[in-house]
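Hi! If you just cloned this repository, the fastest way to understand the data is to look at a raw example. We've pasted two of them here, unedited. The first protein comes first, obviously.
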Amino acid sequence: MTRRTLIALTLAAAVLAGAVARPALAAAPRQEPTADEVARIKAACETIKPQVQPKKPRKLLVFSVSHGYFHTAIPYGQKAIPLLGQATGAFEATVSDDPALFEPERLKAFDAVFFNNANRDVFRPENFDKLPAEEKKQVEARDARLKESFRAYLAGGRGLAVIHAGVAALREWPEYGRIIGARFQNHPWTAGSKVGMKVEEPGHPLCRALTQPRFPIVDEVYQLADPYSRRLCRVLVSIDAERTDMTRKGIVRTDGDFAMTYVKPYEKGRVWYNAWGHMHELFWNPMVLAHWLDGIQWALGDLDADASPRPKE
């Protein structure tokens, strides 16, 4: 074997190895918060005072199942939300990705559910398409049962609080679009973008933490799609177009309506959504945590606030 042939074979092997390894590198790895980051989260939570005390001991299910794209912020939410409940006394959080908790008898133990960057078909295994036919039928039956349980739970008067990618959960289930009031379109403002925010109702109880009427957020910022409409939702925070790069590729809305936080009823239930939650630093930002606390307490049924839709004039 000549030296030239050996070099060619070596290069070919390296290219092949890279091609094989590349899909593994594309998957976002799970990264646990460092001890220093947990300390920052805890310290930020301890600066926050709840607007109201719970009417009774509250239980919150923090659910983070994510298929397809895994947000590395998920472990940060799994730390921050329980610490927020402990520091403020507002709720006790159960952190679990077990879909069995959505069975009717188990779900009723919780006053609200928190979708912590949950994504796609959260009641099915990620390998669903590769399952044998008989097992698929069993999974589909359970999926339908859990969806109906979740729907009835919310319709009956319980709450749902959602951050960031949770708007992209259950995307094949039409009823979730009606529950959450929107669908994920894309994120023209990629991770680390500085985007202006505008508080639309400074006096609203769920805007208490947002002391400045206009402020920047550094995050991956979403654009929402149908069924989003102000006829269905009460928008509290939106993108401040005057202080944001609105020339980004991928912007498709022509109405200039980019909601960031909104609330809406779902029959007798309560649904709160906030689009932030990609960047890790947000999980020790006191303003963001206080805003999330208010949304959670409203979803739990403790913080009274008007959720009636408010169409633009």
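Ok, and the second one:
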Amino acid sequence: MSWTRLAWAVVAVLGVPLALCAYVYAVESGLQSLAPRRRGQWRPWLWLAPGVALLAVFLVFPVLHTLVLSLLSADSTRFVGLANYAHIFTTRSMLVVLRNNLLWLALFPAATVSLGLTIAILTDRVRYQWLVKASVFVPMAISLVAAGVIWKFMYQYQPPDAPQTGTVNALLSALIPGFRPRAWLFDTSLNNVALVLVLVWMWVGLAMVILYAALQGIDEGLIEAARIEGASEAQILLRVILPLMMPTVIVVGTTLVITVLKVFDVVYVMTNGSLGTDVIANRMYKEMFNYNDFGRASAFATLLLVAIMPVMLINIRRFGRKGDAR
């Protein structure tokens, strides 16, 4: 068995590059027989052909196949039309899943962008800014699964008369007199917000770095001119800095929206969707691997794709406008 894997590894490492080189050589050799004008017309398409073929096989076909599966029964033997979608939008437990995703969508991008922007502005030109930025950015080096495990211990609950082993309850008990420890992951009024905070902790560093770069790109002359005109620091922030940073804020926000729509790891590790914390990606996983319902799992996947596509198109259009401006 090991020799078979080794052979496939050799094919992957050496065979694919060699095949591409042979393809390029064949294309260029064939183009030499064409007129120069024809050669210029065909060369881009022939060079793009392998990439287009890979996209078709590994992206377009799976999307179409998933769409077809979402219209079939659990075992993919009967056509059921939109029954899987109707189940998602009419069943109470499924509506809770959709509600949770909307909650994540409302809280996570706003909190992450706001905190990242605040940290970027407050630490600008401070001597110890490197320490603050490094501390905030460190969670990005941790995998989402590891972050879920860490925060599961941090949210750990012990009865009020017992020593608090969870960092959050221990810290709040020390800082707030009379604070009663909370079961953060078991309290249905708090557990979704507690999960959102974990992802905010993970991503606020990246938002801060990007927004800080945008802040550094603002012309100092504009800020000095505003000060000379008598504008206060608050007015400069609201009327000069934020409007100039708004394109970057929008790009970061839309990226975070795409991220939160696909949230899975944190929920799977910390609660596995129990106690009203399930989200679309985690439910899709359950339908596929726990319940063997390929129809509903594909319907959830299609909903995710439909939800993400408009945000991706907004980003693509913005990048296209920037390219045209240049």
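That's it. A detail worth noticing about the second one: The chain has two domains: 2-69, 90-325.
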